[in-house]
């Protein structure tokens, strides 16, 4: 009985950890959460500031994007670092 309980807890913890790790990556979030409604290529051509990305993600959440606050932060940070305006001379 105890071995069974331990095994069930281990599997449950492993699944929860895998799910959390999967969505701790901005690129994964972009594909899993944003590409549900539109191709990620639409996002990848935009070059925006961190504030602009935050506003865009907030707007998408109001339209139904399923992101919790932690996922939103990870996604906005990823987008702001990866798809930022060109800072040429």
Automatic annotation (TrEMBL):
Residues 26-82 form the Quinohemoprotein amine dehydrogenase alpha subunit haem binding domain. Keywords: Signal. InterPro entries: Cyt_c-like_dom_sf (IPR036909), QH-AmDH_asu_heme-bd_dom (IPR015182). It comes from the Bacteria. Residues 1-20 form the signal peptide. One of its GO terms (molecular function) is heme binding. This is Quinohemoprotein amine dehydrogenase alpha subunit haem binding domain-containing protein. It comes from Geomonas silvestris.
């Amino acid at each position: 009985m105890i071995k069974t309980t331990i095994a069930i807890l281990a599997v449950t913890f492993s699944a929860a950890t895998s799910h959390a790790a999967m969505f701790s990556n901005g690129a994964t979030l972009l594909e899993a959460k944003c590409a549900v409604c539109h191709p990620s290529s639409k996002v990848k051509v935009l070059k925006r500031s961190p504030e602009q990305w935050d506003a865009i993600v907030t707007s998408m959440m109001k339209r139904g994007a399923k992101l919790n606050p932690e996922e939103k932060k990870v996604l906005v940070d990823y987008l702001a670092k990866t798809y930022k305006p060109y800072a040429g001379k």
